[in-house]
Amino acid sequence: MDVYVNPATWTARPVRPQWQLALRFAGSVVWFPVVCVLWAAVLAVFLVVGMFAEVVTAFSNTLERGYLKAMGWTLDRIGSTASWCVSWPELRHEGDVAYYKARVDKAVAKWTARASAPVVPKKPKPPVECAIPLRKYRGVGGWYVAEVALAQGWELRPTDERKEVRLRWSAAPKVA
Fold it and tell me: Which of 65, 96, 98, 169 is the most buried (most CB within 10 A)?
């Protein structure tokens, strides 16, 4: 733990004014559906072009990797245009520490259940790393995520707590 910044300094974000959240929520009601439709349309275009490019990618792995990288980058950029949006629970529970503690507890418990699940043959292996986004812990700070996760057997990974807290399941096999 000494290689990380002290999680005790990862404090909760300041409470945003209610009028600002209400304004963002009103904008979200209009903007988020537009982003969803745009994202789906761009995905459809990439899939259609991908069907025709399949002939070329059969001979060129470089083109395929570049195509998938471009598709991922584009869809991530479109999705990030909605990062300022505010959901109804965020509007209602801004500043409610108990609500955010329950959210963090639920998120970490969900990831713990996934990571500790037994390996089933011919199924994907359980995840060994996860990231808890800022939306989950805004009202309590990253330190609370670290406390809950460490108590359940997770290790902290290098992270930017202003965006997310990254964790690694400590019981997972170490990969060099």
Answer: 169
pLDDT the model gives residue 152: 92
Q: What angle do CA 85, 100, 104 make, to 5 degrees?
A: 100
Q: How many CB atoms lie within 10 A of CB 97?
A: 13
Nearest to 115 by CA among 100, 125, 104: 125
- List of residues 6+ apart from 15 with CB closer than 8 A: 94, 95, 139
Amino acid at residue number 113: A
Residue pair 46/172 in contact by the 8 Å Cβ criterion:
no
For the cut 90, the answer to whether the pLDDT of residue 117 exceeds it is no
Taking alpha carbons only, the member of 136, 49, 120, 32 closest to residue 84 is 32
Helices (H), the chain: 18-57, 61-80, 88-93, 97-115, 134-137, 142-151
Would the pLDDT of 99 be above 90?
yes
Q: Computed over its alpha carbons, how large is the radius of gyration of the chain? A: 20
The SS3 call for residue 133 is strand
